[in-house]
Design a protein that fits this description.
The strands form six sheets. Strands 15-14-20-19-13-16 form a six-stranded mixed sheet. It has a four-stranded antiparallel sheet with strand order 2-3-1-4. The protein has a four-stranded antiparallel sheet with strand order 11-12-6-22. A hairpin with a 5-residue loop joins strand 17 and strand 18. The longest helix is centred in the C-terminal third of the chain and has 55 residues. The chain is an alpha+beta fold. It has 15 helices and 23 strands. The protein has four domains: 182 residues, Multidrug efflux transporter AcrB transmembrane domain (Multidrug efflux transporter AcrB transmembrane fold); 76 residues, Alpha-Beta Plaits; 82 residues, Gyrase A, domain 2, CATH 3.30.1360; 147 residues, 2-Layer Sandwich (Gyrase A, domain 2). It is found in: Cell membrane. This is Protein translocase subunit SecD.
């Protein structure tokens, strides 16, 4: 029978509508303003005592709050407004001190019955709900110095392997390594090897200590290449770390010679982000010095010291994978996998140094709150950045190993997990500090949301008015489909975890117009079929069937453009492309399937002489 769906089709359409409504509902529950408190170190516990201290600070400052709770080593305090949020952050920073990171956050209010099946609201972009903006500065001087130290170790090892005798290899200035040879007979041989293998340096013959020497100076091209590598590697590492944290559609972008901009839209939780992004934790494996020359370091768990060789065997740069594990005593550890170069170096070292102690040096960039400075009437915290190097393990090499081994000596399973994350996501090529930290408040975002919603509402109302006036009952069908299309767009984006931006709202407005285009095509074809004298039921069937190919063609071409925009675009362009793509897919369903189901329910199988269209 024409224009009648089987029962399973009606049930399927109804099921899709119910699922769409369910997963779009979380967006009706706005987030609460909140502050989150987390310890700066993995070993520092956040518990009920921390909550009591925080409550005392807020009570003394006269700041009203509610819903304070401790979970997963962090403390969340809900506040009544964004103004109270800013006041609470300033008060807690002063009251709790530098042991804790205080961050603005948005606490979800989605009810449990929606959370039960994974319902969650869309994340809003930086321009809608605010977010976090970090400007991170790469310490290029330290990076070049570390590269020179690595070159120094490699030169010593390779000269020994080549049989070129030398008296000393040392860094003589910021970008120069001086090699003092044992006699003149080795100078030509050394120069030849340097020209072939150290193209980053310009070699110059000289004398030192009345012996022949060669000064190896980094070329300008090599310095620029190293800086570019450091920036790109740090960008990649930061992107990996952001992905580990689970931030949707972040922006990690180079700015100038030595800075990287990181924007985390959608939420204002800077606690975990700052702790992971800013932490430059790394490892160095070194042998214990046997000849009394080297560098002295302190053990983490005591005041004991040990002298380690200057030569570094491998670092976190050589790590390709790292996972948390436990040693034979049940203590937290990290299982490390090295790349081929690191594995070869470790294998050679362990083979030649059996029964010799090898240390694991833990290196961490830290910051300390030193006070506040008034900027534009606000108290801005000032930090001092410093580096800590501590020995976490010193063990005797009992056998030969290379690419796979275990690092022990960590304080807790949480610290092991954190270190594994940092190593797994890639070591920072160069240390970084926070040059600027800015939290974009929700006030501007609220204004953008209001304007965006107004544009959607006005466009939606005008389209419905047009459809009802021109197509009467069928215009009502189109209006129902258009409403459900918006619900489905919101639901799909919520399920996918997409981030809604202001350009994304523009994509929704465009979707409203595109969705109704399909109905206009269908209804116009029905009118044409009626005009040539076809029966009502045949005209309805022909209208949907004949307009289908045109609708498909038009939507496919637009969808291809949206995919291209997403592939080559960045930031807001991607946000527009996402909502446009989702809107195209949902509009195909609502404009064709849903309106056909409504038409069939009302007119299907009935003897209709005149169609109100």
């Amino acid at each position: 029978m024409l224009n009648k769906y089987p029962l399973w089709k009606y049930l399927l359409v109804g099921f899709v509508m119910i699922v769409g409504i369910y997963y779009s509902l979380p967006n009706l529950y706005p987030n609460d303003s909140a502050v989150q408190i987390r310890a700066t170190q993995a070993g520092l516990v956040v518990n009920d005592k921390t909550l009591e201290r925080a409550e005392e600070v807020l009570d003394e400052a006269g700041i009203e709050y509610f819903g304070a709770e401790v979970s997963e080593q962090s403390l969340l305090v809900r506040l009544y407004s964004s103004e109270d949020q800013l006041k609470a952050k300033a008060a807690l920073q002063t009251g709790l001190g530098s042991e804790y990171i205080i961050a603005l956050n948005l606490a979800p209010t989605t009810p449990d019955w929606l959370l039960a099946l994974g319902g969650k609201p869309m994340a809003l972009g930086l321009d809608l709900s605010g977010g976090v903006h970090f400007l991170m500065e790469v310490d290029m001087d330290k990076y070049i110095a570390s590269r020179l130290t690595s070159f120094e170790s490699d030169i010593k090892r390779n000269l020994r392997e080549e049989g070129i005798r030398y008296r000393a290899v040392s860094i003589s200035s910021d970008d120069t390594i001086q090699v003092i040879l044992a006699s003149e007979e080795y100078q030509d041989e050394a120069n030849t090897w340097f020209r072939r293998n150290l193209t980053e340096f310009a070699a110059e013959n000289t004398t030192a200590r009345n012996l022949p020497a060669i000064n190896l100076t980094l070329t300008e091209e090599a310095i620029v290449a190293m800086e570019d590598y450091a920036i790109k590697q740090n960008q990649t590492t930061l992107s990996n770390r952001v992905n580990e944290i689970g931030v949707a559609e972040p922006l990690v972008q180079r700015q100038g010679r030595n800075r990287i901009v990181v924007e985390l839209p959608g939420v204002q939780d800077t606690v975990n982000a700052k702790r992971i992004l800013g932490k430059s934790a790394n490892l160095e494996y070194r042998l214990q010095s046997q000849d009394g020359t080297g560098e002295v370091f302190t053990f983490r768990d005591s005041n004991r010291t040990v002298m380690l060789e200057n030569d570094i065997i491998v670092t976190g740069d050589n790590v390709t994978n790292a996972t948390t594990s436990f040693d034979e005593n049940g203590n937290a550890a990290v299982s490390v996998t090295l790349d081929s170069a690191g594995g070869a170096r470790m294998g050679e070292t362990t083979k030649n140094n059996l029964q010799q102690p090898m240390a694991v040096l833990f290196i961490e960039q830290k910051s300390e709150l030193i006070g506040y400075e008034e900027v534009n009437g606000e108290q801005v915290p000032q930090y001092r950045n410093y580096e800590v190097k501590e020995v976490i393990s010193l063990a005797t090499i009992q056998g030969v190993f290379s690419s796979n081994f275990q690092t022990t000596g960590l304080d807790s399973a949480e610290e092991a997990s954190e270190l594994a994350l940092l190593l797994r996501s890639g070591a920072l090529a160069a240390p970084m500090t926070f040059a600027e930290e800015r939290t974009v408040g929700p006030s501007m975002g609220a204004e953008n949301i209001a304007k965006g919603m107004n544009s959607v509402a006005i466009g939606f109302a005008l389209v419905i008015l047009f459809m009802v006036v021109f197509y009467k009952v069928f215009g009502i069908f189109a209006s129902v489909a258009l409403t459900m299309n918006l619900v489905l767009v919101v639901a799909v984006m919520s399920i996918l975890g997409a981030t809604l931006t202001l350009p994304g709202i523009a994509g929704i407005v465009l979707t409203v117009g595109m969705a109704v285009d399909a109905n206009v095509l269908i209804f116009s074809r029905i009118k044409e079929e009626l005009a040539v004298g076809k029966p009502v039921q045949s005209a309805i069937d022909a209208g949907y069937r004949n307009a289908f190919s045109t609708i498909i063609d038009a939507n496919i071409t637009t969808f291809i453009v949206a995919v291209i925009l997403y592939a080559i675009g960045t930031g807001s362009v991607k946000g527009f492309a996402v909502t446009l793509s989702v809107g195209i897919l949902t509009s195909m369903f609502t404009a064709i399937v849903l309106t056909r189901a409504l038409t069939n329910l009302v007119y299907g199988g009935r003897a209709v002489k005149k169609l109100p269209i």
